[in-house]
Amino acid sequence: MWFLDDLSKVVKIRDYGEMSSLLNLNIRKVNKHSISMDQELEIDNLLREHKMMDCNGHYTPLNVDIFEIVKCGGKGAERCDEALYRRTIGNLLYTG
Q1: Hey, how many other C-beta atoms are within 10 angstroms of the C-beta on 28?
Q2: pLDDT tens, 39-71?
Q3: What CA–CA distance (Å, rounded) separates 52 from 20?
Q4: Which of 42, 63, 69, 93 is the 20 to 30 A CA-CA neighbour of 19?
């Protein structure tokens, strides 16, 4: 591992072996020359937090009419918690 050898000359490091996650990213070695990264755990936590585990996925971009339905006070919408809505959208932007 030439990289670790060179890095250890500059800073003190410890080798804990192969990494499985970093900053809520799941990291998996596919073969000698490639890795796979996903945010499945983070997305599951987000869905669980907002009680959306049973929701159906949808490809993006969504039809713009959908925003009229989910917007606070929009047609067919119940009263919504604006802070919760903003936090949810922020979490979705972070995972994107």
Answers
A1: 13
A2: 888 888 888 887 888 887 766 665 555 555 455
A3: 26
A4: 93
Q: Tell the residue number behind the tokens 């945010």, with chain if given.
A: 39
The three state secondary structure string of 36-59 is EEECHHHHHHHHHHCCCCCCCCCC
Using a CB cutoff of 8 Å and minimum separation of 24, what contacts does 1-9 make?
none
pLDDT digits (tens, 9 = 90+) for 25-34: 889 888 888 9
Is residue 25 within a helix (H) or strand (E), and if so which, with residue range? Answer: strand 25-31
Report the interhelical angle of 40-49 vs 82-95 (nearest 10°).
Answer: 170
